[in-house]
Amino acid sequence: MRSRHMKAYTEKIKADSNDAKRVLLQLQGLYLFMGLAGGMFNPYINPILVAQGFSSKETGFIMAFGTLVSIILQPIWGILVDKFKKTRFVLVISLLVPASLAYFYNIQVYFILILIYTLCTIFQVTQIPVADSYAVTAARAANTSYGMIRLFGSIGTGVGGFAAGMYLSQFSIHMLWLPFLLFNILSAILASTLPRQTSISSSSVTFSVGLARLLRNRTFLLFLTGCFLVNQTLTAFNSFFVISFQMAGGSVTMTGTALLLASITNVPSMLAAAFILRKWGHERTMLLAAGAYMLRWGIQWLWPTPEVMIGVQVLHGLSFGFFYIAAVEYVASVTGREMQATGQSLFNMVFAGLGGIVGNMLNGYLLDSGGPSLMYLACTISAALGSVILYIVSRQAKEQRRAYSLE
């Protein structure tokens, strides 16, 4: 009888392990196709709009307004997921709606473009929190790190950026919506095969209650402030790199090479992230990454030339790669399982939402007013301020751990 129970238990463990590996592969494929879609299209949204006669300041306003509306509405996604347990459905529509609307970026009417970008962003804003909640849970179940999933997104983004440069050497920039549509459809197909239930949908704490708890945590608020100051600088790359690079004399093909180099450097960073996090901890790893951001922007401020702007992209993995992995896992460790979805959503609202609004408006204005040098100088200063705040977070965390060890 006992041997029968042991055999059944062993078979259950084996089945659970196989399920965990299957979900892990599905998520790696999902991040790969999401990366290909975003890598080919997102860096060129601004150039598409500029090609239609709009200034960087005007395109920055389009992006900032769309991001503002999306973060105001983002809590609704959390409430819908909590109430109706439709995690997988939300992820699928967050991929299909922007893909369906991408063609309409070619309309040369300013207010319609604001509407299209806003609608796309409203749906896209929930992609990362939902996918990351799946990824963090799946990584733990498969006894691996979140970085082993997220790196496939970086591979996809890098290959997509390079492929876009090759694509644009043959086709008009106004045709980029086609590969974006294709890869998003493939992403949606993979997302539809994921399990229905994850920690995001089985949370015992509602979004509103979890949000209230997190907003009372002073250390967490400091962490969010530091993330905001660091990540608003990333719009200088995500939204304005293609334009600033071409202003400095870079070609379309060289742009693809720079985007590929930046994203591919995320791969070794994310592979090494688990080791670095164990050795240094979340807070010190974020500090290291914030310092890399300062160096990255500082070099481009001093030498805004195509060759330097390509070479400095090797710091993308050390800056964004380490920072994002450490921040996501920091949120997961601080919020716990019951508030993981809420924590990731709040983090994304500040990191990508508020950071995107301020970054797009500020960097668009600075690029128009003083060119790449002025924009990168402001980014260097902002990353430095963020580093100071994250240093305070690191000190507080160290003191808390010391206090616990003495109890």
UniProtKB/TrEMBL annotation:
PROSITE patterns found in the cross-reference section: MFS
Annotated transmembrane regions: 23-41, 61-81, 111-130, 151-169, 175-194, 220-245, 257-277, 315-334, 346-367, 373-393
Keyword rRNA processing: no
Positions of the Major facilitator superfamily (MFS) profile domain: 205-407
Origin superkingdom: Bacteria
Keywords assigned: Cell inner membrane, Cell membrane, Membrane, Transmembrane, Transmembrane helix, Transport
Subcellular location: Cell inner membrane
Topology of this chain in the membrane: Multi-pass membrane protein
InterPro entries in UniProt: MFS_assoc_dom, MFS_dom, MFS_trans_sf
Keyword Ribonucleoprotein: no
Protein name: PPP family 3-phenylpropionic acid transporter
